[in-house]
Amino acid sequence: MSLLDRLFYKSRKFYDDDFDWDTYTASSYARQLDKIGKDHQMIAGQGELAFDAATGTVTTGNPPLHENALAIFELIGQLQPASVHEAGCGGGDHLGNGSALFPEIVFSGGDRSEGQLALLKQRHPQLADRAILQDLTMPFSNNWPKVDLVYSQAVLMHIHTAVSHFVAFANMINQSNKHVVLMENYQCHNFVEEAQALFDGGHTNWPKMNIYRFDGSHGARIILLSQEDLDYPKLTSDAQIRDGLKVSDRRLKRGQEDFDRAIFGNALK
Known about the structure:
The protein is an alpha/beta fold. The chain has one domain (about 5-260): Vaccinia Virus protein VP39 (Rossmann fold, 3-Layer(aba) Sandwich). About 35% of the residues lie in helices and about 15% in strands. It has helices at about 5-10, 25-35, 65-80, 95-100, 115-125, 165-175, 190-200, 240, 250-260, and strands at about 50, 55-60, 85, 105-110, 130-135, 145-155, 175-185, 210-215, 220-225. It has a seven-stranded mixed sheet with strand order 5-4-3-6-7-9-8, sandwiched between helices. A two-stranded antiparallel ribbon has the order 1-2. The mean pLDDT is about 90.
């Protein structure tokens, strides 16, 4: 992204997504891999990752995996789902590391970008048949795999066109039999309020929804939606998940504008 584009990006109204998904792999994603890779391991070596069931934590190599990925894996290890799907799997590094860490769990992924899936096949050829072309902002497809747990890592936070992120959020919930895990920038959308509104408005197929906060051992925090009663702190507001974060008034304003565009389902009286 050029300097002029960045200046325009900061001043524009956010009624479209953060990226052009057709050019995302070359223009932005490759740069992010390089940036994160300076301080963190992207693809763990054989035997470098281990889950300790007694403490519910993941040990990593040196340099370590990013704390966001470690928190996701720690929660997966504690919940022990039979199947996991990554919404917006990108180049597949999380899928590859997760599959290596939990070989007993069936991992799959989906991404709306053919370029991203091509990159996944280059970086993780063993996952070529585990990833599908999936646009979460489309109506729900019965061809998508139904799994115990669906997670996203920095995906919904970038979707701002009209009410598309609500469609994506509801699709993640409806694709899951038990749990949805969000690892996002929690100032980009009102995720807690939106999850409750989607449930109350009848936009999900879940008969029950609990909203929890999970804190990884390396500092990252997660929003967990679950049909099960679990022993994690409950979330009732976005202020709770944002507590202690550096405030971005611009992001909070954009997130509120995104929420205000939604009209949720009402039952006939």
